[in-house]
Amino acid sequence: xxxxxxxxxxxxxxxxxxxxxxxxxxxxxxxxxxxxxxxxxxxxxxxxxxxxxxxxxxxxxxxxxxxxxxxxxxxxxxxxxxxxxxxxxxxxxxxxxxxxxxxxxxxxxxxxxxxxxxxxxxxxxxxxxxxxxxxxxxxxxxxxxxxxxxxxxxxxxxxxxxxxxxxxxxxxxxxxxxxxxxxxxxxxxxxxxxxxxxxxxxxxxxxxxxxxxxxxxxxxxxxxxxxxxxxxxxxxxxxxxxxxxxxxxxxxxxxxxxxxxxxxxxxxxxxxxxxxxxxxx
Length: 281
Known about the structure:
This protein is an alpha/beta fold. Helix content is 34%, strand content 20%. It has helices at 19-29, 63-69, 94-104, 111-124, 132-135, 152-168, 193-205, 236-244, 262-271, and strands at residues 9-14, 35-38, 52-54, 72-78, 128-130, 144-147, 176-180, 183-187, 216-219, 233-234, 249-253, 258-259, 275-279. The strands form three sheets. It has a six-stranded mixed β-sheet with strand order 6-13-11-9-7-8, sandwiched between helices. Strand 7 (176-180) and strand 8 form a beta hairpin. It is elongated.
């Protein structure tokens, strides 16, 4: 662990998925008791025995008095949020209303703008925002191969994929793309990586792609992205969908991508004859 709370606790603002669970597990393993702030729709059983609070969107501003009450000085944002929140302004409490001016101005912009404004609000209120890699550096993908090996054509496709993602960065688009043959055929949108891979499956099923096998998924952070939030992540579901989509492999940016349930991912990739590799910048 690259960070250690000496005098206060850490809160996890927990969305859906496995990442918040793995961070909570990491903290408890080293003797720290995280405080779980569960966003709407989060029902993961591993949180049941941990101290925390369920939040409605209309009361997310309660994060600050709760953290003060429980002597929390650090917070990590982890997990997914399905779509933009459906806010009911008439039900908002005062702590939440105080945070709105900074965030509302960014809601119609891209994810980076929204997340950046959230960090600004949190740190202005005295909390230090940590990244998942600060809590669990073992989740970060290292340079090198985990399963299989890309061939020469695969490496060319990987290079093209990274070039495309770099070129898209100023437009605050997705963090992943799929390259088949010598051209990109899919780019991650707001719906996420798994939905992009489902599109590849549909294209193959509909005969829009000439071959039932081939191609590489490439994933990397956007240029200038704050790695404390929304760090590119792959897990068993992503690897399974890549296999089902008939891809030859997955390449991610080493040192800037998280891998959840690493051994499970490697096992799925090996059984699906899928290479899995981390590429240095």
